[in-house]
Structures are given as structure tokens and as C-alpha cells.
């Protein structure tokens, strides 16, 4: 193959990811958290104050990343001024002001949909280093063709596409988490002052992404100890030469040096003010202590289940990814030193352990999005054992299956479920919230209404965006956050054309209406006439 083509093929996979990304970002309406996050980064950068709702919900990198359009559009910043006598407690600083976000989207001076779309697209700036790190690491482990297979699975990943297209922290953490491990591995294997600085900056960016990035501190420590035990003398000696100490002391200096640079980077991101980060940690602890309603296969819990995340991985990850990752682990263990297994396995294992054993909120696989780049590395490792044997045909079969599974469900990546449970249409029977329905299909509902000539619909919507953004006329049914524009409460059961978000259909958050979680169980006697993106069901009740 000509060298020019070999050089262009990796970019082709990034281009495929970008096209799918841009289309998904345009056709999907704002999800729950996005409405409260939009414009926040620009406010923080303009004022240097962490005194408004959502400012202390997460560290600021994702907010900064999505802020550039807010500096271009003529936003009305008066919505960011709150009453002087309003209590600025932890709950206030963590909460999301969806009214503020909707005011920006509905501003008549500009196109709110386009403003929101451009705010989403800046995630591609993080996708570039993620894909570059994936390609570089995979090529070193698995060769050129293995690296292309890794990029192929990353480019078509419904899990990455679902969250990369959102104004949220999950993809930001995924990219910075993987790049941190990549950079730290480079520091240990090819030590230099530049490698030390890059690893420190990468860890700092990860800590700026989400509080769960703190798991990287024990992850990097585990990798350091693993390296000390399983590396050969010459590998340890290279690190020792950089720091002019014994092997163990040099590794300790490398680890502590990276942590120091990371903390400095994190501190700088707050304008060298440590208080907002402490408030963010306190708000997270408050949120964990408050508990969160969760849904799993018809069950409800405020404390969650230990098997929630393992099950979510099993049914929301494409089957080819699961199978080939196991195959790749076997192939990597056979032909690579034990040292490499530590770099690839410690990060996802400790991340999973944090959420399985840490009693984390059971509201979405997105909390474990960071494991997927490591799965793609393992997928790429299958190529070496498959080349020049009959196994290459099996590998091609899995790749075709994977491509079909993703593309036939595009752009409904957030609601993706694999064939083990019957695909996305059965997903609501197993999981709710950001696993399937996070409010992303209101725009799709308006398109359906226009296509069918429906002027007004009875709507129970799980989401925060105002339907007026799409000129969607509705009659209110009980739902989470949807404003009641009428003068009276809805009477249930009801008749007519009904649209209901599947999260509301499960009832997980519906007990707030005093009617219990069985508020919509009467719909079980009816079959939906349409599914909008697998997250909104349409019923015709006579």
C-alpha cells in the first residue's frame, strides 16, 4: 500500500466519527444537563466567579471547552444575575438553572438551535488527541492494521458518539483519562523532561474534567508499582537516569512530579483560587449522601445495586466489542510482556471498581465511558493473531456486524442497546435516564408531528428544554420538569394522541406527583404506534 494512503487511513476514521458526530449533534435536542450547562464556561471565564447555579457541580474544563460560541453570540447576561439575598449554599451552586439556559436558547436575536449546535461541536477538539493517542498506542502494541481496527471501533462506537455530542463532562473525562494513561506510559517507557510535563498537564486536564478523575491518583500509583515489579533493569534504569536516583526513588519522584504539575494545572484553571474546587467536592459529597432514585429491570432503589454497572456494560456495549476485547486480552497476554497488561487493565478495572464498590449513582453507563478506549485497544490486539490465518474472516465478520449495528441505529446512539436484549426498542425494560432517554428526542417528536399533521399532542416529557424552541404545541401530562401551561392538572388515564418519554413511562421519578410510580402503568395495556428515537413512545388511545 502506498505510504500516502497508509498515512491518510487513520484520518479517514476520524472523519467518519466527525460526520456521525455532527449529524447527531444537530438532530438531537438538548438533554437534561445541557440546558443548565450552556454558556456557563463563558460566564466563569468572563467573571472569575463561581457563584451561580451549576458552577460548583463539576470542575470547569467541559464548561470552558463548550464556551467559545457564547463569546460570539450576543447573549443576554442579565439572566446570570441572581438576587443578593438568595442563599448561595451547596444545593444552589450544584443545581442547574434550566430557566437561564432556555432563555438563551429562546432569545429572538439569534437562532438558538444553531447556537446550541455550535456549542456542542467543540467536543471534537478533545476527540483529536483521543484518536491520536489511540492510534499511537495501538500501533505500538498491535501494528498498523491493529491500530486501524482500534480506530474503526472508536469511530463507530455508539457509546462514544452518544456522549461526545453533548455539553457535558463524561466525554471530556473519557478523553483526558485515556490521554493521561497514554502520557504516563510514555513517561515510564521513554522518560524525558518533556514527557514529565506532558503527563502532568494531561493529569491536570483530567482533574479539571470531573471529580471521578481523582481515581487516576491510585491508578497511576498502581501502574508505577506494576512498572517497578515487571519492568526489566534497563527500563528502570532509564527512569533513574532522568531523576538521578535509585530505581524506586526515581519512580516515586516521577509519580509525585506528575501529581504536582497536575495540581498546579488544576489550581490555575480556577484562577489560582482553591475554594471553588473545595465547594465542588462538598457538593458532590452532598449529592451522594442525598441518594438518587434508580431503575433496573422494573425495580426501584435509592441506593442502587452492585450489579447495575456490570449489567449496563453487558447490554449497552456492542457484542463485537465485548467478544473482541476478550479475544484481544488473550492475544495480548500471549505475545506481550506482563508490563503492558498493567497499562491496559489497571485503569478500566479501578474505574469500574470505583463505581461498583463506591455505591455511585445508578443513573447511567456514562459514568464508565472512560473504559471504552481501553476496550478498543484490546480489540486492536486481535489483529496480530488473526492476520494470515482463517481468523481474519471471523474478524471481518465481527467488524461488519459492528458497522451495521451502529449505522442502522444512527443517530440514536444514546438509546443504544445490543442484540442480547433485542436492541434499543427493548431498552426501557432494563434501564432508564441517560441510558436511553435523557430528553434528546423532542426535536424528533416535532418532526413526527409535522409529518403526521398533528398540531397538538398530549405530552409527558422527561427533559429540561422548553418545547417552544421547536414551536411544539402540547397539552401537559405529568412529567419531570415540563411546564404545565394549562390551568388544571391532567386527568389520567386519558385519550387521544399521547407522547411519553420512556423514563416517565418507567415511573422512576414520578412519585413526586403523589400518585406513585405506577402513574402510567395503564399504558401497558396499549401498544405504541411509533417510537421517536427509542426514547419517546407515541400512543393513540380512543
Write the topology of this structure.
Blueprint: H1 3-27, H2 32-37, H3 40-47, H4 61-65, H5 68-72, H6 90-94, H7 98-105, H8 112-121, H9 124-155, H10 158-164, H11 170-189, H12 193-207, H13 216-230, H14 233-243, H15 247-269, H16 275-290, E1 294-296, E2 299-301, H17 308-316, H18 319-335, H19 338-357, H20 372-380, H21 382-386, H22 391-409, H23 442-452, E3 457-460, E4 474-476, E5 496-501, H24 502-506, E6 530-532, E7 536-541
Parallel strand pairs: 3-4, 3-5
Antiparallel strand pairs: 1-2, 5-7, 6-7
Helix pairs in contact: 1-8, 1-9, 9-11, 9-20, 11-12, 11-13, 12-15, 13-15, 13-19, 14-15, 18-20, 18-22, 19-20
Shape: globular
Distance between the termini: 64 Å
What would you report as the Rg, rounded to the nearest angstrom?
Answer: 24 Å
The helix-and-strand class reads mainly alpha
Uncertain stretches: none
Residue-averaged pLDDT: 94
* Beta content: 5-15%
Number of strands: 7
Strand order of the largest sheet: 4-3-5-7-6
The percent range for helix content is: 55-70%
Whole-number count of domains: 3
